[in-house]
Amino acid sequence: MQNTSADRLSLLVLGGTRFVGRAVVEAALAAGHQVTMFNRGLSDPGLFAEAGVETLIGDRTADLSALEGRRWDAVIDVAGYLPEVVQRSVTALGDRVGRYVFVSTISVLADLSTVQDEDGEVLELVEGLPPIQLYGANKAACERIVLDAYGERASIVRPGLIVGPYDTTDRFAYWPRRFRRGGRVLLPGDPADPTQFIDVRDLAAWILGCATGQRGGIHLVTGHSMPIGEFFTACQAVAGSDVETVWIGTETLLKAGVAPWMGVPLWNGDPDYAAANRSDISRALAAGLTFRPLAETLADTLAWDTARGGPAPDKEGLSAAEEERLLNAG
């Protein structure tokens, strides 16, 4: 439903042409809001030009002059990774935005070996952090900058794994594509292992709700945790192909040299992050977080993946050759 002119807000999106940003802009346009994007103009320039979206060209690391003298009801920051960059944006915008929505990550949490909620301790940005924690520590520092500057007018969104159309990581699209191909399919870990993710469009709807003033503060925003075996069953139903599923346990995968998180899509395999797929999202659910059916996410992702011709060989979640090696090792 389109908003009335009285409800139509002016929104600034920092980024806006890739995955999460793209979904946010699409949601905002569908709701009838006026959208301005600020980016370098390098990724899919002109994507929303026909929809009347204004794009301001600049560089958050060096040149924010295009933002001078402008005001917006809210800014949505989908591409803030380093505290010095976010500080530049906060300083440049100041009180010329009514609300600052910062898209963070559950990786800010210091302990993901046990179930956490929004009140869990976050990582501190100190020297010597391993790369796996540096990303989260930088995001946590960015959160503090936004909260310090905007207080109650800050919305901090901490997603878990984000999936759906236009996700080029192949963490999710790999599975419906693999099931459609048929044959012997390697399934990692145990059917009861948890997995947790959110459709990018459901996340965008939540982010837009923050920007329009419905909710502030910090929220963990991801899907319901579910057994990964149920996820694979849903993949097979959507793909509609005959397959022979072969479960390869976590210990076997580790002994075969498979890297946790990255070796097999959606597989964790790291005891230090055993609860990363069991985040407590009760606060966001109480504040109105909703989800579309998993079958819809899978079908839409498969359709998008098919239309793009699948990923480049070096971007595929698990190559056929590596899958066969692991199947034989198991």
How would you sum up this structure in a few lines?
By secondary structure, the chain is of the alpha/beta class.
Describe the structure in your own words.
The radius of gyration is 20 Å and the shape is globular. 34% of the residues lie in helices and 18% in strands. α1 packs across α5. The chain is built from ten helices and 13 strands. With 330 residues, the protein is of the alpha/beta class. The termini are far apart. It has two domains: 177 residues, NAD(P)-binding Rossmann-like Domain (Rossmann fold, 3-Layer(aba) Sandwich), CATH 3.40.50; 111 residues. The strands form four sheets. A seven-stranded parallel beta sheet has the order 3-2-1-4-5-6-11, with helices on both faces.
Task: State the main characteristics.
330 residues; 34% helix; Rossmann fold; globular
Mean pLDDT across all residues, rounded?
Answer: 95
Radius of gyration: 20 Å
Q: What's the number of structural domains?
A: 2
Structural class: alpha/beta
- Name the helix and strand elements from N-terminus to C-terminus, one letter apiece: EHEEEHEHEEHEEEHEEHEHHHH
The number of helical runs is 10
Regarding quaternary structure, what we see is single chain
Biggest sheet character: 7 strands, parallel
List the helices and strands and how they pair.
Elements: E1 10-14, H1 19-30, E2 34-39, E3 54-57, E4 72-77, H2 83-93, E5 97-103, H3 131-150, E6 154-159, E7 161-163, H4 174-181, E8 183-188, E9 194-195, E10 197-199, H5 200-211, E11 217-221, E12 226-227, H6 228-239, E13 243-248, H7 250-255, H8 282-286, H9 294-308, H10 320-329
Parallel strand pairs: 1-2, 1-4, 2-3, 4-5, 5-6, 6-11, 7-10, 8-13
Antiparallel strand pairs: 9-12
Helix pairs in contact: 1-5, 2-3, 4-6, 6-9
